[in-house]
Each structure stands twice: as C-alpha cells, then as structure tokens.
Specification:
The protein is of the alpha/beta class and 215 residues long. The protein has a single domain (2-213), classed as 3-Layer(aba) Sandwich (Rossmann fold), CATH 3.40.50.300. It is 35% helix and 21% strand. The chain has helices spanning 15-25, 43-51, 71-76, 117-124, 138-151, 167-177, 193-203, 206-210; strands spanning 2-8, 29-31, 34-36, 58-59, 63-65, 98-106, 128-133, 156-162, 181-185. A seven-stranded parallel sheet has the order 4-2-6-1-7-8-9, with helices on both faces. A two-stranded parallel ribbon has the order 3-5. α6 links the parallel β8 and β9. It is globular.
C-alpha cells in the first residue's frame, strides 16, 4: 500500500474532487475514513459517481455521521466518540497500489475532545497533499496549515491549488512555505472521469506523486 493523504486548508476547498482525480490518475483506491454530513450523500458516493470506478476501488468509511459538523461534535450528537484505533489505515490494499485517503475538513479539525485530525495524520506516517483555494485569504490559511503539519514532522508532498490562477498568491505561498507546488485544479464545467483525467494530464506531473515512494 502506498498511502497519500489529501487534506485541506478548510472545508469545501475541493479535497473530494482532487481525491477523485488522483484516484483515477494514479490507478488508486479511495478511502474517506470519517464522513460528517450525509444529507447529499457521502463523499465516497460522489467520487464513485464522478469517476465511474467499480466498488473494488473503494474502502468503506469507518464513521458515517449524519450532521455536517466538525467530526467530534457530529459524533457526540449520535452518542459516539471517534476512536483513533478505529481509523488506522486499511490493511487490505495491495502493496503496489496507491491509497488516496481524504481527510475531513481542515488540518486542525477535532476528531474527538482530545485529538485533532493532524495528530491522526502523524500516526499514519504517510505523505500529505494540502489542497488550497486560490481566492483571497489563501496565503494565511495555507501557511498556517503548513505550519501545523510541519510542527508535527508530517511529510508534506506538496500543495494543490484549486480555482482560477492567482500566480502571485501561489508564488508567495511557495516562497514562504518552502513546499512544492504540485499543480492547480481548475474549476471544471463538467465533473466526470474524462474531465478529471484531462485536468491531471494538463496541470500535473505523475512523477511528482510517485516520488513519495522512491525516497
């Protein structure tokens, strides 16, 4: 198994679309361990619909919570507590396959009253990809997220920007964050497998993701 963790600077930043793209482009397996919010279906269902991939390319969530809230609170409303030992990386993924793991919300979202999501990432010891908006405020949010990851000695493979091109914001983040720019996911008018494959081919380099397992 070759895990890649996809996290974001905030909720709704585009992690699910990026995860769908990487699952397709890297011939990977998708896993969203904690799903908070089911009114519009789950992110696993959305990725399956967009990519058209078979059921064997997905792993089941460990927690599916009804309310679209921070995981710790969404769990408490159902008289649950998310236990870190229940959210370990799956052990049934072949060693030569990429496992695309999508986090819930931002880097510092709590999963229970004692543990932040970034602490779960540290347990996994897997490379992290940070998704960032290109809109106003992204410099502050992205640099803070990078600080939180690096403080816990989590390997950051790089940043994927999501949205319209903002060259100065991207350059400023790379200069201060000392982190690789993996590419930019544009706003796609149609969300389907062909569009995602096209975006990856145009805006990304497969070798940037494969290097995570050549070190």
């Amino acid at each position: 198994m070759r895990p890649l963790v996809v996290t974001g600077t905030d909720t709704g930043v585009g992690k699910t679309i990026v995860s769908a793209m990487l699952t397709l482009a890297l011939d990977g397996i998708y896993w969203k361990p904690i799903q908070a919010g089911t009114a519009d279906g789950t992110d696993t269902m959305r990725v399956a619909e967009i990519t058209g991939l078979r059921e064997t390319r997905f792993r089941a969530e460990r927690y599916v919570l009804r309310e679209a809230l921070s995981p710790h609170l969404a769990a408490e409303l159902e008289d649950l507590e998310i236990r870190p030992e229940d959210v370990e990386l799956p052990n049934d993924v072949p060693p030569d396959r990429a496992l695309i793991v999508e986090g819930a919300g931002g880097v510092l979202v709590p999963i229970n009253r004692r543990m932040l999501q970034v602490m779960m990432f540290a347990r996994w010891r897997a490379p992290v990809i940070l998704c960032a908006r290109t809109t106003l405020g992204t410099i502050n949010h992205t640099l803070l997220s990078l600080e939180a990851l690096k403080l816990r000695e989590i390997e950051v493979l790089g940043i994927i920007f999501v949205g319209n091109a903002m060259p100065d914001s991207e350059r400023t983040i790379m200069d201060f964050g000392k982190t690789k720019r993996l590419g930019r996911m544009p706003l796609l008018p149609d969300l389907n497998a062909a569009a995602l494959r096209g975006a990856f081919k145009t805006h990304f380099d497969r070798r940037d993701f494969e290097t995570a397992y050549e070190r």
